[in-house]
Each structure stands twice: as structure tokens, then as C-alpha cells.
Amino acid sequence: MSKAAHPLAGKVALVTGAAGGMGRAYAHHLATLGADIVIADLDLGAGKRWGEVEDSVEDEINRLGRRAVSVEGDLSDREAARRAVAAAIDTFGRLDVLVNNAGGAITPAERSTATASPEEDTSRLLAANLYTALYLCQEAAPVMTRPGGSIINIATLGVFGASRTGGYAIYTAAKAAVVDLTKSLAVELGPVGIRVNAVAPGVIRTPRVVATAEQRGIATGDQDAKVPLGRLGTTEDMVGVIEFFASDLSKYVTGELLAVDGGVHHVSVL
Questions:
Q1: CA distance 207 to 25
Q2: Average pLDDT, the chain
Q3: For residue 181, which of 231, 125, 133, 250 has the smallest C-alpha distance?
Q4: Could you tell me where the DSSP H helices lie in 93-224?
Q5: Band of residue 223 on the pLDDT scale cut at 50, 70, 90
Q6: 196-218 pLDDT, tens per residue?
């Protein structure tokens, strides 16, 4: 197969939160581009529970003809982050791409405003969304391919503005910190040839999002109609952006935040 068909041939990608949902889609797509994959997740069985995976993402990647290794652990613990990076080096001998996808709005929506968020929710959201990205970047940067390494941090549509109710405040604050972290890392690591960019997805219809839509108040009702492109997103809408940042297509791009939301962050509520 040509370099054009497999632009990541010989490279290794570490994807966090890759046992299901968007992380699984990123891992699959990077594998089809030729990369070997490190699958890191708090719960490697998550995709199977949501009906996405028959056995495991590792087995799926192997069936695509690529090599894969799985690491289970809480990546907001620095030791778990260190183990995930070590798995790439010990198993494959290199690390070229890091996708910091782990995290999410994982606490109850009804107490997610800034004034209502209890301490346990605040700590959990900061750990899952900010500390995981920070620790993975700190552990990965010294061993990533240089020049040529690429770090992709996943943010959220919420970094562009608050919701009409003020909900998900700590989650979006943590992701806003990830965006600022991305800029600082881009400046720090640019001289050694490692690029760092961020992606802000809108609402993406993963199986978990669909199953919990009513409970969380997202992906329901007429939300499709509010998107300029007329629909909520799918994982297929996301993977091309990950390919762009992971490959030489973006070799002169760093420190950027790209919204992938069908244009909804441009819509005024006035």
C-alpha cells in the first residue's frame, strides 16, 4: 500500500478513553492509516457494555491488520499515565501520536452549575478532564518522536461559551484549561518538532450519548435543527480531523483549536 494510503505506516498512536465511543473511533481510524495503537482506558470493558464492541478494541485493531496493546487504569493518576506511555515504548519502541480523549461530563447534570457543584464533583471533573491530559503530555513529551510527534487534546464545544442554564460549568472550565495548556505546550515543544493542537467537538451521537440523552438533556428534541449543518455529529465526522492533526497534513499547524460542531458555536441565542 502506498504512503498516501497509509500515511501513518510505522507509527504508534496512544489514544486515551479508547475502549468505546469517540476514542474507539479514533483508534480504529488511526489503525486504518497504518498506525499501531495503545488503547488506554479507565475501563477496557466500557465499549462492550454499551453494545459497541463484541470482544475488545484491541482485538478489533488486530483484525484490521495492525498491532495493539491495552492498558487499563485511572489516567488522572500519574503512575497510570506513565504506564500507558511506557506500553508504547516497551511494546512498539516509539510514540508518534497522543490523543487525549479521556474525560467527559461525568457528574450529574442537575448539580453541574458553578454554584451548585459539590467538591467531589469538582475534583472528579478536574481529574478526569485536566489532569489526565496534563499527566499524559508530561509523560509522553520526553519520549515522543522529534521532530514529527503530534499531541491532540480533545476539548468541548462548551469552551466557546456557557450553556443557557450555566450547566456543566466545571467540565467546561476544565476543558478550557486544556485549551490553554495546548497553547503553552505548542510553544514549549515546537522547537523540538512536536505539534500540539486541540479539537472541540459538538454533541456527537455515540451509543453512550444516545442511551443517556434524556437523563443528560443532550441529543434530544429539536437540537438537530439548531445546528447550521442540520444535524448532530457522528464519530465519522470526527475522525478526519484527528487524521489531519496526526499526519503531515498539518505539519505546519500547532497551538490551534478546531471546532467540529456543524457550526453551532457561531449561532447567537439572541
A1: 12
A2: 92
A3: 133
A4: 119-126, 132-140, 169-189, 207-211, 213-216
A5: confident
A6: 999 999 988 776 665 555 555 55
CA dihedral over 34, 251, 146, 190, signed as positive or negative: negative
**What pLDDT was estimated at residue 259?**
97
Q: Phi first, then psi: what are they for 247, rounded to 5°?
A: -110, 180
The backbone torsions φ and ψ at residue 200, rounded to the nearest 5 degrees and listed phi first, read -115, 95
Domains of the chain: 12-261 (3.40.50.720)
Q: Residue 219 — very low, low, confident or very high, per pLDDT cuts 50/70/90?
A: low
SS3 175: helix
Torsions phi, psi for 9 (to 5 deg) = -55, 135
DSSP 3-state assignment of 12?
strand
Q: Which amino acid makes up residue 29?
A: H
The Cα–Cα gap between 166 and 139 comes to 34
Please identify every residue annotated as catalytic. Answer: 171
Helix, strand, coil content of the chain in percent (nearest 5): 45, 15, 40
**3-class SS letters over 203-270:** CECCHHHHHCHHHHCCCCCCHHHHCCCCCCECHHHHHHHHHHHHCHHHCCCCCCEEEECCCHHHCCCC
Backbone dihedral region for residue 255 (phi beyond 0: left; psi -120 to 50: alpha; all else: beta):
left
In the prediction, which pLDDT does 75 show? 98
Residue 204 near residue 22, CB atoms below 8 Å = yes
- 206 touches 235 (CB < 8 A): yes
- Asked if residue 155 has pLDDT above 60, the reply is yes
How high is the pLDDT of residue 181?
A: 98
